[in-house]
Amino acid sequence: MSGETNEAMKMNREIAKGVYYVGVDDHHTEIFENLWEIPYGVSYNSYLIVDEKIAVIEGVKGPWSQEWLDNIREIVDPSKIDYIILNHMEPDHTSALPDFAAIAPNATMVYTPKAAAMQKSFYDVALKERTVSDLEEISLGKKTLKFVHAPFLHWPETMITYLVEDEILFTCDAFGSFGALNGKHFDDEIDMDLIEKESRRYVSAIITSYFKFVQRGIAKVKDLGIGIKVIAPSHGPIYRKDPLWIVNKYDEWTRPELEKYVTIVYGTMYGFTQRLAVKLKKELLNLGVDVKFHNISYSELSNVLTDSVRAGVLVIGTPTYDAFPFPRIWNFVNEIKGKRFPVKTMALFGTYGWGGGGVKKIQKMLEEMKCEVLEPVVRVHARPTSEEEEQVKALARAIAERVK
Question: Please, are residues 47 and 170 in contact by the beta-carbon 8 Å criterion?
Fold first, then answer.
């Protein structure tokens, strides 16, 4: 590679003087965490700081270690790296660590005390380690790194790294997004409508269980009174044009106050439950209610979660399947429980052919989760009678009253 070409690539990746993007794109993985579809891919962001001491912040997922190391080589010899800063031990950030250790044997791993045990369990690489306390600093020469502990964003060992002189906040999974970068690393280079959609889907799929910790993390950083010129997360774009845009979006998406819309999530086998769902949707629309609508068998789960987690009322419809709820609805309710949804007002409807246990079991589960289940709960034996049609209308009125 010519010196001119190499210099152009460095300029394309330069965030501030001596600070470079060295991450990689993943267009191979179709389902993130083997759970969430990523039609636009995902980026594993890593950052290189070249000073008197050289530091790399965050690693990448193991299959992309060679590309990552090659990106570093375009700027410095990886064997000369002094520190690898591990904000988070999840393998999509760290599973290239053994390959890194093989070519940078003099580097020191820097992480929180809780991360040390994880590293030994995951990899046990033969590098020196340094555990850092909250707000501890490391000087690289002219540049200083400050480490801010951010537990449960979204693992217990997580921290954020702040580059003091350049006012760059390396935020790990906080403020992340699905979507590969394709050589356009910054918010002023890309389609922000797509980033808003993919960021919210990322938050809803990955971070829902930890909304209160997002709020605490935002408050903690604000309380530090630091300047922020750039926000550099571990997935998605780097925010330099308007770094607080993504902070404000995350704040909006994780607040305890819910939004004034209704989401209907239903399963159906032969169309009976779907007909009820459509009737309920029509009644709600006639009452002026904003409705989001998902057939659980066809809507991708992260999209269902995105539309459900902040709904003013969440409506669940299920047929009975072998005396139990429709399996995908049952799985969805388990997601609600496991992710500790802030929405606690529910409505239920469903159908049955001969047994009728589906709605009853969902209702019991929601009540055990301390959710309020609006009345009436509509249970229909196949096609609704005129009386049951009136119950659907009554349920729509109860939902509309609560949302408004």
Answer: yes
User: Nearest to residue 305, comparing CAs of 255, 280, 341, 273?
Assistant: 341
Residue 391 to residues 39, 384, 398: CA-CA distances in angstroms?
41, 10, 10
Residue 353's pLDDT is 87
For residue 9, is pLDDT > 60? Answer: no
What does the DSSP assignment read for 126-178?
Answer: SSEEEE--TT-EEE-SS-EEEEEE-TTSSSTT-EEEEETTTTEEEEETTT--S
CA distance 325 to 266: 11
Q: Are residues 187 and 44 in the same domain?
A: yes
Write the pLDDT tens digit of every residue in 134-159: 999 999 999 999 999 999 988 999 99
Query: Which residue reads 């119950």 in tokens?
Result: 391
E strand or H helix at 35: none
Q: What is the largest CA-CA distance in the chain?
A: 80
Q: Give yes or no: residues 143 and 249 share one domain.
A: yes
Number of domains in the chain: 2
Shared-domain flag, residues 229 and 304: no
107 and 157 inside one domain: yes
In terms of pTM, does the model score above 0.85?
A: yes
The per-residue DSSP string of 36-60 comes to EE-TT-EEE--EEEESSSEEEE---
Query: Do 80 and 133 sit in the same domain of this protein?
Result: yes
Within this chain, do residues 13 and 123 fall inside the same structural domain, yes or no?
Answer: yes
Cβ–Cβ < 8 Å for 369, 343: no
Q: Which domain holds residue 205?
A: 3-254
According to DSSP H, which parts of 309-379 are helical? 327-338, 358-368
Confidence at 123, pLDDT banded by 50, 70, 90:
very high
Q: Which of 254, 272, 303 is the last residue of a domain?
A: 254
Give the C-alpha separation, 44 to 24, whole Å: 5
Q: How far apart are CA 257 and CA 146, in angstroms?
A: 33
Residues 313 and 186 in one domain: no
Q: State the average pLDDT for the chain.
A: 94
Residues 51 and 130 placed together within one structural domain of the fold: yes
- The more confident residue out of 187 and 1 is 187
Q: In this structure, is the dihedral angle defined by the CA atoms of residues 140, 143, 146 and 147, taken in order, positive or negative?
A: negative
